[in-house]
Amino acid sequence: MRPLFRWITCRHLFQERGRTLLTVLGVALGVAVFVSIRLANHSALASFADTVDAVAGKANLQVVSDSEGFDERIYPKVRAVPGVQAAAPVVQTYALAAPGKPDGKSLYTSGDRGPYNETLLVLGVDLFSEAPFARYESPRRGDRSALLDFLADPRGVAVTRTLANRHHLKQGEALTLLSAGQPVVLTIRQIIESQEFQQAMGGNVVIMDIATAQEVFHRYGTLDRIDLLVDPGQKEAVQAALQPLLPPHAEVGQPQGRTQQVENMVSAFRLSLTALSFIALFVSTFLIFNAVSMAVLRRRREIGILRSIGVTRRQVMGQFMSEALFLGVVGSAVGLAAGTVLAKATLGSISRTLTDLYLVVHARNLYLDPVIFLQGFALGVGMSLLSALAPAFEAARTVPNVTVRQGILIEAMPLSIGRWTAAGVGTLVMASAVALWTVSQRRPFGGFVSAFLLLVGFSLVAPGFTLLMEHLTGPLMRLVAGIEGVLGARYLRDAVARTSVVVAALMVAVGMMVGLSIMVSSFRQTVDLWINQTIRGDLYVEPVGRRVTGSATVLPPDLVEIARHIPGVAAVNTYRSVRITYEGKIAYVAAVDFDIQQQYGRLQFIRGNSAEVIARARSGNGVVVTESFSYRHRVDAGDTVRVLTPTGTAVLSVAGVFYDYSTDAGAILMDRQVFARLWNDPRTESLAMYVKPGASVDQVRTRFIEAAGRRIVLHIMPNRGLRERVLAVFDQTFQITYALQAIAIVVAVLGVISTLTALILQRGREIGVLRAVGALRRQVHTMVLVESGLLGLIGALMGCVCGVALSILLIYVINKQFFGWSIRMTVDPVVFVQAVGLMVVTAVLAGLWPARLAATRVAADAMRAE
Amino acid sequence: MSCTQRPSILVVTIVLILTGLAVSSLQPASQSAIKPSRATARAVPDSLTPDGYRLALPPYRFQFPRDHAAHPAYRTEWWYYTGHLSSGDRTFGYELTFFRVGIDPKRKDSPSTWALSMIYFAHLAVTDENGKAFHYTENISRPVFGVAGASEDRYRTWIGNWSVELQPDHTTHRLKATSRDFSIALDLIEAKPPVIHGFNGVSQKASGPGRASHYYSITRMTTSGRLTIKGEEFAVTGLSWMDHEFGSNQLTPQQAGWDWFSIQLDNDRELMLYVMRLKNGGIEPMSSGTVVNADGTWTHLPLSAYQIQRTGTWKSPASRGVYPSGWVIRVPGEQMELRVTPTVVDQELVTGGVTGVIYWEGSVRVEGRDRGKPVKGVGYVELTGYAGALPGI
Hints:
A: alpha+beta; six-stranded mixed barrel; B: mainly beta; AttH-like fold; 25 strands
């Protein structure tokens, strides 16, 4: 019996190879999206962890601080703590670099980095403290004098083999680094061969003497890290002894702690992507459900025969389950391969987004984690089996005598619409309850549970909705397409058990598309509005590379004065920011001139007018905080924040909370003088110029360029340029979302095609009868097309409703919980028109081929059975 | 700070700096000779290297204890202690050396604390002669935040918790060095006055002005203190030898390595000899030695006054270098014939794959005749350039 059975299964899969292929493809896509997003994310973080590991070497404790470093004079004290076996001081920063010598050009438009297209991790080390850490193994035998050259050359640098090969650089050749926009030409004295450093930052690492690093990056008197080798037995004791020696903004911890911190920082980002990829899998599941259901319906007679010759229910069920298993296994396998390819393509985008939003991540290589492959495979196969369970069980219930009554439309199974609908409504109520609970409890995960329930609920309501729609559209169809239209519409009702599956699949796809569109476009509009209100300066100046090097970048102090004295300039505001740790989480402190901010700035405060709030903050040496900071740390106007600074813990009163979408970590904005005092840092990293009414921005720009000279490589952006750049970062961040949307639609379209084909092909008899009673080919054709079009329409309409619900969830629950941003929901009806249009057209197109097939069916063939 | 398996950069730097830097300082000199830039030539006085270090030129009058302390006007300087210790029936050899090397005097102007104008490094080795075991480690640092340094006004040189310091009595040298596995804490009392090598306060290393160093030894120092090996502590007494040498351009690129001997005989006489081996297989004619009498007077020995005959070789399993192992030294003018035997065959310092500079520095036993009478003694031998090429050579 068993071989026969297997043969039947194989035969079916082969006979319907087109449909099999589509289903496999659908599963593959779902798995591919899941795997690729996980892989790309994992790779970006693994690359970061590798960098941390390579940079840490054998260090088992590190003294670190926030972005600004700490006073180097603690080094001898740290070194002298009992239990410390070795202590290595490190100056660490990021810099843009170009191979060779610079081209002398000093101005680039926004986003253009000229030849400076490598982002490098720069490590300034004291080689004499390094031996116990065993990390900068490099000079090969016979290459030893290079080490002395390296040490003796105050502008010497060591580059990784990877970087050297990429740019065909050799010892003795030049590498130009941008330091605060100023090109510094270094000589390559050493090639780093150590394997760890080829992995770290994708090989984008350079090492220089610690003094060289301090000189090149103007970081005199500070260190960014002290790496320690500590007797493992005394780790806690050493840690405790060290802490009182350190300034308040520095801390001592294990190197792996840094990776953990970063993982926490990007967890929101990662989770939201993973959740999106689950939606793609969800859509695939529908596809399998659909495929197996169709198979069950089509082979009802065959099942009847098998049952009457003694095949057990269990065996019938096993047959369908093994079909699903086959589809799941093949689909998942293809999905894993496709996912790997896709991950490679996504990696750059994810890396860039993480760099834009959080910190420099430079992933070049995929880290193929077998766990992710296993997960993807298990999910693909598991969901296939799960979704096949109900139809297979249903098939097993087929009664043996069904063969005798072969003329009957057996597929019109009794379906208790009422119960399904009730279950659906119940699930939707549950979804709302979870959403409300999430908001009140601030549990971010609840948002995803709610979204899942929402999709399930809407799917359960699908049969009811289909009937309702048929009821409503029936008369309309009669008007539009005559009797063919009525028949087409009626079939949807009669075969609601299976058409509603298609409707549900379409609904999920459209819902996701609409929901994400509304969320993203609302978000984008909110950001756009915010940019227009907030960015008021006429010209913005920053050194090239500020985006990657962050607060390590500073402008020459005289540049601010130069800007102030240019005719036509009304005011110049300066900007400075550092990353801090606030209550164990990463946050930012930004400093601007409150005087100018009060006069010219237009921050949007949740309560109060910009000038008034700023004036209040200025008079009381207070601060204002971003909405995400306020949300994250539950701080509101009138409260105080305790910030760890190099000069001690500062207690600052919060004068107001303003909207800001530049970082979800949250930021504290203070007056530059307060910042300069607390951080001992009067420097400026970028500036904004306000031009006098009537003066020409272009003229001011030209004069500034003349005055600034060629010594520094700058980005000078007009107001519009900066706005565009902010939006570009935004779009970059949502690129992956757009890609997911497209994939979900592809999966849904595949579903429509596969289902409609099956639906029509197995109705050969019915169509035969129609033809026999005089239906014209054209009429059959029209009937089938009406069916498909209606299916598309119903799915799309439900999808729109579902999408709006989903977008509310995304905007008010998920986004708010993860990022703390207020998004003003704006719904553009064009989204609905697009969704409905796309689905109906796709459905009709998908129906074309089956319609033609149906129309050409020979009536006699079908009649013989009757 | 110390790591027995990986004394990486230290040894490289010894040889690199002694030889490599000499080469690099030669180059500008020869360039200015080619180019007719008299202004430059005149700007650098004859008594200085092109980069501004003082050359070891005669006459030099040593003054003690002042000259025990540092001489930063010269590029390189080292303080070198070796000795033989015993505790009951256990005997040990030890070596503790501090090096000061100028890298770039201009870097003193940098606002960075870490600017590399000078580095300090040190070596500690202990030979367990009964256990036939050899332990060594290194320490290296730039002179930042007082982590390493050498006083000029009084004799104190240190890196981390390794130090040598002249006590207020002006005759006791206190040595301290601790590594993870072994440590020493010794007081050395000068039993003889310093011996000035060479002529006019200058020990010539090759022909040419300034190819020399200022070099003296205290050839007999009574020693007592503590020695710890792997947690086992010994109260020890014994005999030590101190070398102190400073100069700027003493070596040439033609040199392939050297064999150096310090010997303390039980008749209260001592002998210092060295042979500079050249790349062409010959011997530097300026190689020399000094024999020290019981009353502290000494005699300079030119190369022609002594012969060193190798009596055996030892192939290092670690570096595959083949070293001489065992010698017969003859000083006919002194009626001296000494058989020199290593106490432990393997006293090779093998640095890691990174730097790859390897040399042998170890305690030896001496037996033979001096002034015709049988003598016994102890000594230290240093052999460089036998395993792998030396940088710059």
